[in-house]
Structures are given as structure tokens and as C-alpha cells.
């Protein structure tokens, strides 16, 4: 890492353990990373199981679902009781599972999830009253499928429909209460939301500014089609997750400032002290950093 005064620091976790703890999520505020060594796992394949389910059933069995699988991704459609689940588990390279046929990829991922989805979002923007019925259709449009492929091909999905996004991390135990509150707000305030609400999880870690710092975490991401004013929806979502110890995703839309963030991150002031050491003149500074770091 090259700091503001041009000096180099080797943040290996041995020479400078405090800097390493801060720099792993440094927000661009600590300097420029000039060299990095990654420890990788061997290449692997993933078996994907995807399909519709009732949201209530997912939440009832959520802990078991997460414990029994490597990766769980849920997309709940507002104005409905339904969601799409994406479950991935690593398998050996010689696993004999069938891959996703080309025609199925073109139908599901390109035609339905992108082409048709773009069309229904444009329709919902023009006629908001249709969004609940559109979501009922969208939540049933994709049929169940199972396939196996190389990890990067299974993980990556093409997303060609533009949107604005706000994502918060809450303790895993707070996921269901937060989602129930969000659903109630949408229903009570006549907010028409055509984009699914995404839920994913991560294990606790020890990175100072990580949203999963020292707690098993569930992420809730809300979206609005880019032509729809997102401000009321996102503000309500932020108020809800604030009641559940929500930590904002640093790289997505949020309104938190330094004083709020200090309450959410036990090492927030430690990070600021590291910043003062490495960049006292604020060479690496911008409006966003001034808001979130003070």
C-alpha cells in the first residue's frame, strides 16, 4: 500500500495488523493498493437448484436452508406471497450433473429475466396500478430448474434492466422481522414495487468496516426501476432496517452519516485514527468520504 506521503506499507497482517484490519475495507480513504496476494481455492463446479416458493415457507425454514447449502439467494416479489430461490452447492469437477441447455439459458435468462422483465417494468412505470398483477405473473414466469456448471458461469447472471438499489445488512436473527415490516409498509402506503427484494447471507468476519463484522448477517436489497422515483421507498426501508441494527452497503445508495455509522461499527474510530496516520492531509478525500467518515 502506498500512503499519501509516498511511503509503502506491507499490510500482511504481521507487520501492520491494525492497518490490515482497516485496509481490507478501506473505502479508498487510506491510500493506493499497489500489490496484492490472494489465497485462492482450487477451481470448482456448482450445482444450482432454482425455482419458485412461498415466502412464508422460506422464512420458516430459513436457518436450516442456510445451514444445509453453500449459497442461498432469495428474490421476493412485493405484492405477492411468492419468491424465487437460487441455491448453489460446490461439487467436484468430475460430478456428472447436466449443464444448463443453451435454449433454456436463452429462454430464462435472456428472454424472460431480461427482455420480458424490461417490458413489464416499462408497463409498470406507465401504469403503476398494474404492478401487483405484473408481479403475480413474474413470480410464476420461471419454472424450476437444476443444472451444474463451472462456478463463475453459475454465479454470474446477466442483468440488463436498469435500476436503483439500496442494500442493508442486518443480524440474521432480524431478517424475518425486517421483511415483515417492509411488506407491511409497502401494503399500507400504496407503494408499487415491480423489482424483487433480494435476500442473501454471509458469515461473521473480523474486518473493521465490514457489514458482517462480528455477526452472522442477512442482506436485504431493495430496488426500483430507474424511471421510478425511489426516494420514498428507500427512505422507508432505511427507517425500517434502522430498527434492526442495519448497516448500509458502502457502495449502494444510502443516507447514513458518520455519527450514525459510529454507532453501528465498534471499530469506526479506530479506522479514523488509522486514516489520520496514513493521510493526515486528506489527499484521498471526496464528498462521500466526508459524509461517512466525518
Task: Give the integer mean of the pLDDT values.
Answer: 91
Q: What percentage of the residues does DSSP assign to strands (E)?
A: 15-25%
Radius of gyration: 21 Å
Number of DSSP strands? Answer: 8
Low-pLDDT stretches are none
Shape category: globular
Could you give the order of strands across the largest sheet?
4-1-3-2-6-7-5-8
Q: How much helical structure, as a percent, in the residues?
A: 25-40%
Return the structural class: alpha+beta
Order of helices and strands: HEHHEEHHEHEHEEHEHHH
Report on this model:
With 294 residues, the protein is an alpha+beta fold. 38% of the residues lie in helices and 20% in strands. A hairpin with a 5-residue loop joins strand 2 and strand 3. Helix 4 (102-126) packs antiparallel against helix 5 (131-141) and helix 7 packs antiparallel against helix 8 (231-242). The longest helix has 25 residues, at 102-126. The protein is globular and about 55 Å long.
Short précis:
The chain has helices spanning 17-23, 55-60, 62-68, 102-126, 131-141, 151-155, 175-188, 231-242, 258-264, 268-278, 287-293, and strands at residues 45-54, 71-76, 82-91, 145-150, 163-171, 197-202, 217-225, 247-248.
Show the helix and strand layout:
Elements: H1 17-23, E1 45-54, H2 55-60, H3 62-68, E2 71-76, E3 82-91, H4 102-126, H5 131-141, E4 145-150, H6 151-155, E5 163-171, H7 175-188, E6 197-202, E7 217-225, H8 231-242, E8 247-248, H9 258-264, H10 268-278, H11 287-293
Antiparallel strand pairs: 1-3, 1-4, 2-3, 2-6, 5-7, 5-8, 6-7
Amino acid at each position: 500500500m502506498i500512503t499519501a506521503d509516498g511511503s509503502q506499507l506491507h499490510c500482511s497482517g504481521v507487520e501492520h495488523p491494525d492497518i490490515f484490519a482497516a485496509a481490507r475495507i478501506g473505502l479508498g480513504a487510506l491510500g493506493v493498493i499497489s500489490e496484492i496476494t490472494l489465497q485462492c481455492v482450487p477451481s470448482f463446479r456448482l450445482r444450482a437448484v432454482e425455482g419458485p416458493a412461498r415466502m412464508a415457507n422460506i422464512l420458516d425454514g430459513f436457518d436450516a436452508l442456510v445451514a444445509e447449502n453453500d449459497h442461498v439467494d432469495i428474490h421476493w416479489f412485493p405484492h405477492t406471497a411468492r419468491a424465487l430461490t437460487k441455491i448453489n452447492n460446490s461439487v467436484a469437477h468430475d460430478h456428472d450433473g447436466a449443464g444448463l441447455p443453451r435454449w433454456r439459458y436463452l429462454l430464462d435468462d435472456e428472454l424472460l429475466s431480461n427482455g420480458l422483465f424490461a417490458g413489464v417494468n416499462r408497463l409498470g412505470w406507465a401504469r403503476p396500478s398494474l404492478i401487483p398483477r405484473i408481479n403475480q405473473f413474474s413470480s410464476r414466469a420461471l419454472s424450476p430448474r437444476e443444472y451444474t456448471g463451472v462456478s463463475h458461469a453459475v454465479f454470474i447472471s446477466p442483468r440488463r434492466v436498469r435500476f436503483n438499489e439500496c442494500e442493508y445488512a442486518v443480524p440474521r436473527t432480524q431478517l424475518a422481522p425486517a421483511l415483515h415490516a417492509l411488506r407491511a409498509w409497502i401494503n399500507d402506503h400504496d407503494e408499487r414495487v415491480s423489482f424483487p427484494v433480494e435476500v442473501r447471507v454471509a458469515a461473521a468476519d473480523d474486518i473493521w468496516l465490514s457489514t458482517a463484522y462480528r455477526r452472522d448477517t442477512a442482506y436485504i436489497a431493495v430496488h426500483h426501476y430507474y424511471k421510478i422515483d425511489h426516494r420514498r421507498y428507500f427512505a422507508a426501508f432505511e427507517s425500517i432496517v434502522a430498527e434492526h441494527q442495519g448497516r448500509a452497503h458502502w457502495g449502494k445508495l444510502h443516507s447514513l452519516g458518520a455519527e450514525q455509522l459510529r454507532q453501528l461499527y465498534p471499530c469506526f474510530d479506530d479506522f479514523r485514527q488509522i486514516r489520520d496516520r496514513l493521510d493526515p492531509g486528506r489527499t484521498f478525500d471526496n464528498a462521500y468520504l466526508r459524509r461517512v467518515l466525518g
